[in-house]
Amino acid sequence: MTDEELVDALKALAHPVRLRILQALSGTERNVGEVDDIAAIGQPTLSQQLAVLRNAGLVKTRKDAKLVYYRIDDGRLAKVVDAVGKLGGLSAKPMRHLRQPAPGVANFAKLG
Q1: Which first-to-last residue range defines the signal peptide (predicted)?
Q2: pLDDT at position 87, please?
Q3: d(CA 16, CA 5)
């Protein structure tokens, strides 16, 4: 993920209406009407904000007849979370220890 893509994703997340949309989509796929019912946003605003989330790559769409279904792009969101976590010294990925025990030295405890 490029820095520009990360900034776009963070901007998309930092909005109360878009956060409500993502909460409505948490763990499931919903069509626009279902999202509107749960998030109580209103159709014109909902469409605009879903477009922002789509452009930031945070949601995926699937069309079934006339209905468009949305779901969170878990992989993309995980990259955002990982990038933010690294700012605080945290990471979703296991960290490799750079320090190796010196040869011939007793190792009484392994920290890790």
Answers
A1: none
A2: 85
A3: 20
